[in-house]
Amino acid sequence: MHPNQQQLLQQRLQAFRHEAQQLQAQLQRAQQEEADSTEPQPPEQPPRSEQIRGRLMEVDRSIRQIMSQLQHAPHHMPGVQDGGPPMTQLQAPPGFPPHDAGSPGKMGEDPMTPGGKKKRPRKPKAPKTPKVDAEGKKVKAPPKKKKKKDTDDGSDGGPGEKKKK
């Protein structure tokens, strides 16, 4: 993507985000007015809050589209090659989770995988063969010892409880 085109997209994104903030404020005011209003709404005209909400959805869609275009474009670093101002961190519009676009992902990690770890294919497990000693008898592991609990004092031995002496 050409640097001028990327800069234009950044400007459009900033303008859409500003409009989204304005629409959020208008929507809150309109909803408050509709809640306080005692006169009935005309049935042929949708409420003002619905009109604002529709425009806000269009703006959000445009923001997501521009973000997608900017993310899929080959990265151009302003300030490094063309002497332009450095990029500022972008703010997520209200209602969207913040994303730290400034932190680069580690190599080999899929950003879409939860937890950030790449899944490895499982190795097929071979069936276990019983161990046999020199005499031809199967060798068994010694049984595990169970922890003893003192239950004569009426407590269940839960965490945080101290024994009475």
Overview features:
mainly alpha; 165 residues; elongated
What does this structure look like?
- By secondary structure, the protein is mainly α.
- It has a domain at about 1-40 and about 45-70.
- Helix content is about 35%, strand content about 0%.
- It has helices at about 5-35, 50-70.
- α1 runs antiparallel to α2 (about 50-70).
- The longest helix is centred in the first third of the chain and has 34 residues, at about 5-35.
- About 5% of the residues are buried.
- Mean pLDDT is about 70; it is low at about 80-85.
Low-confidence stretches: 79-83
In percent, how much strand structure appears in the residues? under 5%
Q: Structural class, judged by helices and strands?
A: mainly alpha
For the largest beta-sheet, the strand count, sense and barrel status come to: none
N-C termini distance:
76 Å
**Total count of strands:** 0
Helix count from the secondary structure assignment: 2
SSE string: HH
Shape: elongated
Q: Provide the helix percentage.
A: 25-40%
Radius of gyration: 32 Å
Mean pLDDT: 72
Biased composition (Basic and acidic residues): 50-63
Biased composition (Basic residues): 116-128, 139-148
Region (Disordered): 19-165
Biased composition (Low complexity): 21-30
In short:
Residues 21-30 have a biased composition (Low complexity). 36% of the residues lie in helices and 0% in strands.
